[in-house]
Amino acid sequence: MVYIHLAEGFEETEAITPTDILRRGGVEVQLVSMTNNLAVTGAHGIKLTADILFEDADYDSCEMIVLPGGMPGTLNLQQHSKLCDKIKEFALKGKFIAAICAAPMILGEMNLLENRHATIYPEMEEHLKKAEVLKDAVVVDDNIITSRGPATAAKFGYTLLMLLTDEETADDTYKGMLYN
């Protein structure tokens, strides 16, 4: 199970694209509302209906936490103390944590990127505290996956699919979607 977290003001492309790719690849994904309502509005006014509320999520069965970026979505995720507790727990257990666009700042501000490679939306690099900052579209450093922004959402999604399944599943999904 993968949980993709939706806070008010999330970047729509960074939530939907990985969700679609992972589901096409056979991975169970649930959109998790960080509000008290299943309907969550993105940074560009697109409303998505989440599958579950944060309070109903079973993190013991979750393999990966995904944090879409966007503003103020990233700040809203960062201010959710119970989510931050789950992120710390996943980091301690070596479970997958993935963040795209501005969302890697959450990991940097939590000091989870020390001596790791990471990337983030341009001009936000100061938030990747003690990390070696790269400009790659997607960076995988052990259990932490970071990506740069909306245009890298497909590559981010395929990288997550590869990590959660296998190369053949990812390749078949790439080909079926006509991705280069």
Tally of separate helices: 6
Percent strand: 15-25%
What is the 3D shape? globular
**How many strands, which pairing sense, and closed or not: the largest β-sheet?**
7 strands, mixed
Q: Name the structural class.
A: alpha/beta
Terminal Cα separation, in Å?
27 Å
Mean pLDDT: 97
In N-to-C order, the SSE pattern is EHEEEEEHHEHEEEEHH
User: What's the number of extended β-strand segments?
Assistant: 11
Poorly predicted runs: none
Alpha carbon gyration radius: 15 Å
If strands are numbered along the chain, what order do they take across the biggest sheet? 5-2-1-6-7-11-10
What is the helical fraction, as a range of percent?
A: 25-40%
How does this model look, in words?
- With 180 residues, the protein is an alpha/beta fold.
- The protein is 33% helix and 22% strand.
- The strands form three sheets. A seven-stranded mixed sheet has the order 5-2-1-6-7-11-10, sandwiched between helices. It has a two-stranded antiparallel ribbon with strand order 3-4.
- Helix 1 (12-24) packs parallel to helix 5 and helix 5 packs antiparallel against helix 6 (167-176).
- The longest helix is centred in the first third of the chain and has 13 residues, at 12-24.
- It is globular.
- The two termini are 27 Å apart.
Furnish the topology, listing elements before pairings:
Layout: E1 2-6, H1 12-24, E2 29-33, E3 39-41, E4 47-49, E5 52-53, E6 64-67, H2 73-78, H3 81-93, E7 96-100, H4 104-109, E8 117-118, E9 132-133, E10 138-141, E11 144-147, H5 153-164, H6 167-176
Parallel strand pairs: 1-2, 1-6, 2-5, 6-7, 7-11, 8-9
Antiparallel strand pairs: 3-4, 10-11
Helix pairs in contact: 1-5, 5-6
